[in-house]
Design a protein that fits this description.
single chain, 166 residues, 3-stranded antiparallel β-sheet, Cupin domain-containing protein, dioxygenase
């Protein structure tokens, strides 16, 4: 039997194992100081810290920090996302709407809705916890994400704007 067929059959057998299944990764706690921060390449000036190492199969967790007076990029994606505001205040452009938020609020981003987050404070960063069902869509080969760069909703609607420039 080929290795591919053997692997396929093993996957089917694993699916037939009743839940809860044994976790392959027994790591259930990730400490804040273990999160590795980075600034995405391209047009998103915010800082991201993916929470890696947890045995999560269908969603992803990120920490996001938007510098004082800064913003994220304008983006859209197939996955749903919820942003929990850990500290700070600001607003989000979600489609044509503007939505104010502050510490303790939740911001929901529907699939394929253009959105951008802004920090309204000139002296303190905003910190958010992002929860996305992107892993599930990745597993189904259905995820997609794109950025329009540092444009506003109004600028995004300009028919003269070249959609290929960020």
């Amino acid at each position: 039997m080929s290795d591919d067929l053997e692997s396929f059959r093993a996957g089917i057998a694993r699916q037939r194992t009743p839940l809860p299944r044994d976790n392959e990764d027994a790591r259930f706690v990730i400490r804040t100081d273990e999160v590795q921060w980075y600034t995405p390449k391209g047009t998103n000036p915010s800082h991201l810290g993916p929470v890696l190492g947890l045995p999560i199969k269908s969603f992803e967790l990120f920490l996001q920090e938007i510098p004082a007076g800064g913003s994220s990029d304008m983006q859209q994606h197939h996955h749903e996302a919820v942003h929990y505001i850990m500290s700070g205040r600001g607003y989000s452009e979600i489609g044509p709407g503007r939505y104010e938020w502050a510490t303790g609020d939740f911001v929901s981003i529907p699939p394929m809705e253009w959105h951008r987050h802004y920090n309204s404070d000139d002296s303190e960063p905003v910190r958010m916890l992002l929860i996305e069902n992107s892993k599930l869509l990745d597993a189904l080969d259905l995820n997609y994400r794109t950025s329009a760069g540092l444009v506003t909703w109004a600028e995004l609607q300009d028919p003269e704007r070249d959609p290929h420039t960020h």
